[in-house]
Write a structure and sequence with these properties.
The protein is α/β, with parallel strands linked by helices. 32% of the residues lie in helices and 28% in strands. α3 (121-127) packs parallel to α5 and α4 packs antiparallel against α5. The radius of gyration is 18 Å and the shape is elongated.
C-alpha cells in the first residue's frame, strides 16, 4: 500500500471474504493483495491467509486474520454518504441482506461485525439546518428509523 496511514481491521480467518464483499459492494473499493503467513502463528498455520490489503471507498485497509480474540464493535464504523434513496437502499440492503444486522439511525452491521453508517447527504443537511426547529424535527424523525427514509426526513424538516 502506498498510503502512510492504513486502517487495520481484525478478522477471525475471514479477511478475504470481507474484502471481496466490500470490493463488490462499495464504489472505489478493491482487493489489492493477499499475503500468506511465512510461518505458524497463534491462530493459523504457515501458508494461511494472514493479511489482505484492500480499499473501501478509497480508504486503504488491511484485514488481519488474527483469530477469535477480538471482536468489532460500534466504537468504529465506516460512514457512507449517499446521494439518494436508491443508493441508500442498495448499500443498506447489501449489508443487511448478507447476514448483517439492522440497527438505529442509519447504522447497520455487516456479517463480520463491522459497523456502517449509511447516511444520506439529505439527512446531514437536515440535522445541520440553520433553522434549529427544522433540524430538531429531522433529528427526531431520524431517531425513529433504522434505514434512513429521505422522504420522511425531508417531510419532518419542512414541518
Amino acid at each position: 500500500m502506498d498510503s502512510k496511514s492504513t486502517i487495520c481491521l481484525w478478522y477471525d480467518g475471514t479477511a478475504l471474504d470481507a474484502a471481496e464483499f466490500y470490493a463488490k459492494t462499495f464504489p472505489d473499493s478493491e482487493v489489492v493483495a493477499v499475503h500468506r503467513a511465512p510461518g505458524d502463528y497463534p491462530s493459523g498455520k504457515q501458508g494461511d491467509i494472514l493479511t489482505v490489503e484492500f480499499t473501501v471507498m478509497g480508504i486503504p485497509c488491511l484485514g488481519l486474520n488474527g483469530g477469535p480474540a477480538f471482536k468489532h464493535n460500534e466504537a468504529f464504523s465506516f460512514q457512507v454518504a449517499t446521494d439518494d434513496q436508491a443508493e441508500t437502499d442498495r448499500l443498506w440492503n447489501a449489508i443487511v441482506g448478507n447476514e448483517g444486522q439492522e440497527s438505529a439511525c442509519g447504522w447497520c452491521k455487516d456479517k463480520w461485525g463491522v459497523s456502517w453508517q449509511i447516511t444520506p447527504r439529505a439527512l446531514t443537511a437536515a440535522i445541520t439546518d440553520p433553522d434549529r426547529a427544522a433540524a430538531k424535527r429531522a433529528f427526531e424523525a431520524m431517531m425513529e428509523m433504522g434505514k434512513i427514509d429521505i422522504a420522511r426526513i425531508e417531510a419532518a424538516r419542512q414541518g
